[in-house]
Amino acid sequence: MRALTLLNDRITHCTACSRLVTYRETIAAEKRKQFENWTYWGRPVPGFGDPHARLYVLGLAPAAHGGNRTGRVFTGDRSGDWLFDALHRFGFANQPNSYHRDDGLKVLDCYIGATVRCAPPDNKPAPEEFMACRPYLREEIRSLRKIRVVVTLGKIAFDHYLKACRDEGQPLPSPLPKFSHGIVRALPWGITLIGSYHPSQQNTFTGLLTRPMFHHIFEAARKRLTEPPDARDDQ
User: In what order do the strands lie in the sheet with 184-186?
Assistant: First the structure.
């Protein structure tokens, strides 16, 4: 889809946030010892996937030595290992691993984005950086015209997806849905929103998020995509 191609080109050339530009380029120059032979991407990381997808997965931001290294969202880090394993298990990816941009990975009926497109220090974007990136998120949402299910990875992605929809003029429910792991909400404009804990090392190493818990999220997404669009059994 040409709109997404043009959007992603603009994303990769963005220099709007000086703190993020400095950080991503410093990481790319200094590297991590285990990746010293890599040429790091060191730029904003665009979305990735099927432009006609019905499933949209939204994360927080690229990892310093993951997406910022490989140039593809959720690629080359442990969060990506969890994500693509789950996507593959439920038929949304052709393989369970994601190592680099030329590893043969294809996501099926799925598109993956982030609320902030540059790796942030300590994985914590500043409020003004979220705001600077939100036009990209909004345009991505507009361009993905066939989305029926949105899986947000973490509370921040959950909240910013709703903010982007509000900015797009969508009729948000009142009260707003509150994030919790496994929440499923049918939104008034025909989207099912599903919340998940982020598959970060902090969450997976501590057991806050387990494989069965994460698989359940994508099982729910697959179930929603096989139901009639007007099915409603929120929980």
Answer: 48-49, 110-114, 55-59, 149-153, 192-196, 184-186
Which class for 122: exposed (0-12), middle (13-18), buried (19 or more C-beta within 10 A)? Answer: exposed
Q: What is the CATH number that goes with domain 2-226?
A: 3.40.470.10
Strand partners, 107: 93
Residues 89-147 have pLDDT tens digits of: 999 999 999 999 999 999 999 999 999 999 999 999 999 999 999 999 999 999 999 99
Question: CB burial class (10 A; 0-12, 13-18, 19+) of residue 222?
Answer: middle
Nearest alpha-carbon partner for 140 in 114, 160, 163: 114
Nearest to 24 by CA among 98, 99, 101, 125: 125
- β-strands 149-153, 192-196 pairing: parallel
Q: Where are the beta strands (DSSP E) in the chain?
A: 48-49, 55-59, 110-114, 149-153, 184-186, 192-196
- For the chain, domain boundaries: 2-226
**Under a CB-based contact definition with an 8 Å cutoff, are residues 71 and 45 in contact?**
yes
- Nearest residue to 62 (alpha-carbon basis) of 103, 14, 105, 110: 14
Instruction: Tell me the two tokens of residue 19.
Output: 């703190």
The Cα–Cα gap between 122 and 151 comes to 23
Q: pTM for this structure? A: 0.96
